[in-house]
Amino acid sequence: MGADGEQVGIVPLAQALAMAREADMDLVEVAPQADPPVCRIMDYGKHRYQQAQKEKEARKRQSQITIKEIKMRPKISDNDFGTKAGHVKRFLKDGSKVKATIMFRGREMAHTEIGRDLLERLAEDVEDLATVESFPKVDGRNMVMVLAPLKRHKPKDEQADEQPSEPADDQADDQADDQAEEQPAEPESEAASA
Question: Are 80 and 111 contained in the same domain?
Fold first, then answer.
């Protein structure tokens, strides 16, 4: 293939290299598995630069998902649990995943159901913000559950459209009522004048 993308056809290697030198470009093998191999005349440095720019742009558009961790003990008090649940809600609103960990010590391992109840209670508290990605499971002396934020896809335009439409409907109803009251009066006055 030539520098501007046109098909040159099957050309010996020496002639292809000479064509590339004349155009002050490089001869790049595009498809080595083909028979005969396909080469292209291009500026290889420029091509590599453009590829790097595309990759950099793709990385910018990629969303980074962070995982925040909340650690609790099975004997946590209600007010401390509320504080931890508030932190979890804040993390989820920011778009982060949350790893909730219950740490057991000593004889607490005999009562892992207490930890499971705590994690289920946490999941219920944040069910409007998150889904359970990984259900509670025992990992050594810890019980772990992962919560992922829900995806919200309601544009602001739809919300704005919904609110003004209601008063407009009320006004249209009022105007229709006014016209309905006026219409019966008009035929009677026409009949009286005739």
Answer: yes
> What gap in Å lies between CA 116 and CA 87, rounded to an integer?
19
Residue 11 amino acid letter:
V
pLDDT tens readout for residues 108-156: 888 888 888 888 888 888 888 888 888 888 888 888 988 888 876 444 4
pTM: 0.47
Segments forming the whole domain that contains residue 51: 13-60
Give residue for tokens 């995943």: 97
What tokens were used for 193? 């004048």
Cβ atoms of 156 and 118 closer than 8 Å: no
What are 70-117's pLDDT values in tens digits?
Answer: 898 988 888 998 898 888 888 888 888 889 899 988 888 888 888 888
Strand stretches in the chain, DSSP E: 26-31, 38-42, 67-72, 97-103, 130-139, 142-149
Structure tokens at 65: 């998902």
Q: Is residue 182 part of a domain?
A: no
| Four-residue CA torsion sign, 60, 63, 64, 68 | positive
